[in-house]
Amino acid sequence: MKKTTLFFVFSFLTLFSLGTLAMVSYRPTLKKQLSETYVNFLTFSGGNTDLEEVVIIEPIPIPEEIFIVPDLKDYKARLRKDHYSNHLSAAEENGSGLIMDKEGLFQLVEEGALVEVNSGKGYEVEKLTHSHPYLTPETKKVLDQIGETYQALAGGDSFITVTSGTRTIEQQKKLGRRNRNATKGNSSHSYGLSFDISYIRFNGEKSWDWKKLKQLEKVLSHFQKENKIYVIKERKQNCFHITVR
Asked: Highest taxon of the source (predicted)?
């Protein structure tokens, strides 16, 4: 092959690769199409059509979203009550599927569809007796953001308490006999997308603290307005029932 032809082929491949790199990152199915395009071009140019000699650019990993803690000091929006049907619809659409029993739950954990939730910045998870400390990765990410935002607003090492995580259908049925707030049918807790936060327990102590309650409501209202969560205030259980959208 002449030098001018080689230069032309090399230049085209370089520009073509750079131009399609972003698309490959977001649409891996383009890899096959790009391979065929390279082969057709090389055939047209009189080059070698051996696929093994065609360089395929691997997708570049997309960096995780960087969370910037919002300044809610002067935030005025009020917390609204979202209908439970919204919670259940979000859970059915975005959750890990209805979790029937403990075996099914730990199968999802093994597959990575659920992750363990321990205490994080701005929140702690109390010892759970009627649910499991596992949530979907996206739900845990939102919980982390809520905890971090609350601590930034309340100051110091302030933290809230998570009182419920994922419940299996078996657990939900047992709880329904004791707690009238527990849904009689399927619960959003059984999809890995819901958790409860106490509004009478702050910094590890049980107390009616009006200021801290309003700070927590302000944080939840912000995430609600950002279309990240649905919220119901459960007065009998003294907690906010939260489902990630």
From this structure: Bacteria
Residue 63 forms part of a structural domain: no
Strands of 117-175 (E only): list them.
Answer: 123-125, 134-135, 160-164
Distances (CA, A) of 227 to 58, 159, 210, 220, 245: 34, 23, 26, 11, 7
- Verify that 166 and 95 share a domain, yes or no: yes
pLDDT value of position 176 = 66
Domain that holds residue 179: 84-244
Q: Does the residue 121 lie in any domain?
A: yes
Asked whether 228 and 65 are in contact (CB, 8 A), the reply is no
In a domain, residue 177? The reply is yes
CATH number reported for the structural domain that contains residue 221 in this entry:
3.30.1380.10
Q: Where are the beta strands (DSSP E) in the chain?
A: 115-116, 123-125, 134-135, 160-164, 194-202, 205-206, 229-234, 239-244
Furthest-apart CA atoms within the chain: distance in Å: 84
**3-state helix vs strand vs coil in the chain, percent to 5:** 45, 15, 40
Q: pLDDT exceeding 70 applies to what percent of the chain?
A: 70
> What sign for the dihedral angle of Cα 160, 233, 145, 156?
negative
Q: Residue 127 in contact with residue 104, Cβ under 8 Å?
A: no
pLDDT tens-digit map of 163-211 = 999 999 999 888 765 555 555 568 999 999 999 999 999 999 998 999 9
What whole-number distance in Å separates Cα of residue 13 and Cα of residue 10?
Answer: 5
Rg (CA), the chain: 25
126/27 same-domain check: no
Same domain for 146 and 236?
yes
Token pair 């659920």: residue: 114
